Amino acid sequence: MEKRVLYVDPRTKLFLLLAMNIVMLNTSSGILLSYLRFAIGFLPFVMLLTAERYRSAFIYLAIYLASHFITLYVLAHTSGFLMMLLGFLSSMGTKFVPGGMLGVYFFTSTRVNEFVAAMERMHVSQKIIIPVSVMFRFFPTVKEEADGISDAMRMRKLGFAYFFSKPAEILEYRLVPLMISVVNIGEDLSASALTRCLGREKSRTNISRCGFGWVDGVLFAVGTAFIMLYFLELGGLIEK
Description:
By secondary structure, the chain is mostly helical. The chain contains ten helices and no strands. It folds into two domains: 8-110 and 210-240, no CATH class; 124-201, no CATH class. 74% of the residues lie in helices and 0% in strands. Helix 3 (43-50) packs antiparallel against helix 4 (54-74). It starts with 9 loop residues before the first helix and ends in a 6-residue tail after the last helix.
């Protein structure tokens, strides 16, 4: 079995995703809320580092800090279409990208058997477990197919520069094969899930690791603190 530096239970990762979206996606304003959103935005960076996804972690950090820099120091000196464009990009970078990157961490650091075991411990319905388990294999397989299509296009000398001369053909060459591959991948993964008896009513045996440790306790405490501070200020119990 592959040895990992730090094990985090899938239920803890889902709780962090919930905490992240609660704090980030609300439109309420306040000094403490601004600091909370800025601080919790570093959580995906830390978690990606623990999963040894260093390249993704530092790319995310650069996007996140650049988005805050634009919001604080650039937008006030722009106007018109440029201000709208920069405002949209900075809003995406500060509100939606953190949750998306935490989702990337969840999918890349969680094995399917660990996820299934954790969900069965919580007595989650198989109607939820099976589709999500299929998605764990779906996105990496689609990425491999997209990379294969890109390699085939480069062999035919249809690179990025060709997009500007004939964009319609490039979209056709990329999207049509990818859509066909996506349909086939979905059917194959669904059949694979059934052959592994994921749809059986009887409980399956599972030897994968599942349980909480001290790391999960720390992360639960951090997520709970963010949520509590968020609702305390939202309810007016903490002065803004």
